[in-house]
Amino acid sequence: MKLGYTIVYVPDVAQSLKFFEQAFGLPTRFLHESGTYGELETGETTLAFAAHALGDSNFPGGHVAASESAQPLGMELGLVTPDVPTAHSRALAAGATQLSAPVTKPWGQVVSYVRCPDGTLVELCSPIGG
Predict the structure, then answer these.
(1) Which residues, at least 6 apart from 35, have a Cβ–Cβ distance to it below 8 Å?
(2) Which end of the chain has fewer CB atoms within 10 angstroms, the N or the C?
(3) Looking at the whole model, is its pTM more than 0.85?
(4) Across-strand partners of 5?
(5) At 19, is the secondary structure helix, strand, or coil?
(6) Which residues contact 61 (CB under 8 A, 6 or more apart)?
């Protein structure tokens, strides 16, 4: 078994795709003509976005919308970069909210946290051991 994809449910798929391209340099791979599903170019494992309406159809009991939560959800997307401070600044300039400025962890990894306009929590981190 391997991780095939991660789907984040968001209010506006096209806006999330656009934000991730501006903030993190990840271009759109695919946006369905309905606008309810889209994917980014992220390598072997796909990062996708789906509309809350699609989530509602998948989960009859509903789901927690990150965009409506005052606190970030208890999960994050980790994006690895050799230059966390620059990536962090770029994300803020694109509209992300800073949760934690870049810091060097005891094991040497540089890490920061931002929250995207759609509520998604993103960790920006240097490679472990790098």
Answers:
(1) 13, 14, 51
(2) N
(3) yes
(4) 46
(5) helix
(6) none
pLDDT tens digits along 46-104:
999 999 999 989 998 889 999 999 999 999 999 999 999 999 999 999 999 999 999 99
Say if strands 121-125 and 28-31 run parallel, antiparallel, or are unpaired.
Answer: unpaired
Residue 8 contacts residue 66 (beta carbons within 8 Å): yes
Sequence length of the chain is 130
Q: What is the mean pLDDT of residues 108-125?
A: 97
Distance, CA of 36 to CA of 51 (rounded, Å):
5
Sign of the CA dihedral 82, 85, 88, 94? Answer: negative
The amino acid at residue 84 is: V
Contact 38, 49 (CB under 8 A): yes
Residue 38 near residue 31 (C-beta atoms within 8 A): yes
